[in-house]
Amino acid sequence: MSQVEARLAALGIELPKPNAPVANYVPFVRAGEIVHISGQVSVDASGGIRGVVGEDVDFDTAVKAARICAINLLAQMKAACEGDLERVVRVVKLGGFVQAGPAFFDIPKVVNGCSDLMVEVLGDAGRHARSAVGVYRLPMNFAVEVDAVVQVR
Predict the structure, then answer these.
(1) Residues 6+ away with beta carbon under 8 Å from 52
(2) Which of 71, 79, 107, 114 has its CA 20 to 30 A from that of 36?
């Protein structure tokens, strides 16, 4: 078992089958050592976390939604690396989008749910540059969406 897989197991995380695109795009594109992963929403086996953060979705649930996005990103990374997450050299950048209500401003703290899991699972290779943006609406009313740029070998 690889170190990354061992960390996932220790956290009690089993990566899902990567989500299929819902429109005319691909889940990821590899250009040399760089992989661009399309936005992953806060969907899981239970249906995921939907709604407006600060209105329908409380802060702690929003952080959990961002963590779900991280799990979905890791599943896409694994697919991009042909099943071997040890090939991830570095998470270069995350772009976090929070469907936020007009009075909700803790957007960076929500996206930490994704950032923190990247570091927990990938160690220093999970440390990244990041954007965290509040948006009016996300696809299918999901609370959080995160995309990624990853360096692989």
Answers:
(1) 99, 100, 101, 143
(2) 107
